[in-house]
Fold this sequence. Notes:
101 residues, alpha+beta, 2 strands
Amino acid sequence: MKQVLGIIFFFLLFLSTVLLNVKVSALRNEIRKVSSEIDMLEREKTYLENYIQSNLDLKKIEKEALKMGLTYPKNVVEFRIYDGKISEISKEKYYASSLER
């Protein structure tokens, strides 16, 4: 009887070891997939950051804005409101560097 219990014990131990290895293998595959997805997303992020940086040229933005019909303001009026009342109004001439050409 002790031999049968010993055999059953070792069989269950072997079976649990095999099942544990299967589970670990499945988790390793999932980790590999997630790691490769992270790598792909990091490459895409780097690409997009470089694309954004290359398109942040202010002269390029200025040219595009002018093409779209935007213009520089001739005068700037500033209102400051404190406690619901206008407390300061300043009016000044504003000349953009592009208008001085």
